[in-house]
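in:
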């Protein structure tokens, strides 16, 4: 999936707006610093379902109000993971977190160019204090 323009992504050079990243930049992931293989521009059409997440709605994160496409996967490791899924942490689409108060479902009013980070393999990277899944496809050997 993709993230909104202006979303700060944690790199070895600090937090940078996603649109300022380039292939080869070193992005901080759960497995250490990884070179960004590609930064795809993705058109999110008007009417695309988005999730508006209020500042601090997820255990002190995100660091500001933000939105994600409802299909963008993120890692949660707070009481929600245990209460909703019976696990200490889960990677789920943002749309599954909607509570109608601090995390609200909405749609885009107009087309927006989003950005999809790819590393050549699935990674979890840090964006505005959240742990987000990269756009890399997860392949399971047969």
């Amino acid at each position: 999936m993709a993230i909104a323009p202006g979303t700060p992504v944690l790199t070895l050079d600090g937090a940078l707006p996603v649109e300022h990243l380039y292939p080869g930049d070193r992005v901080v992931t759960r497995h250490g610093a990884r070179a960004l293989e590609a930064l795809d521009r993705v058109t999110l059409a008007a009417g695309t379902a988005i999730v508006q997440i209020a500042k601090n709605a997820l255990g002190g994160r995100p660091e500001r109000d933000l939105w994600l496409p409802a299909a963008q996967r993120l890692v949660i490791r707070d009481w929600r993971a245990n209460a909703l899924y019976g696990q200490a942490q889960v990677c789920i689409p943002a749309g599954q977190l909607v509570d109608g108060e601090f995390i609200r479902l909405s749609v885009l009013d107009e087309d927006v160019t989003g950005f999809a980070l790819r590393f050549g393999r699935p990674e979890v990277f840090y964006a505005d204090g959240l742990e987000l899944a990269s756009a890399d496809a997860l392949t399971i050997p047969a």
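note: Residues 54 and 101 are 9 Å apart (CA to CA).
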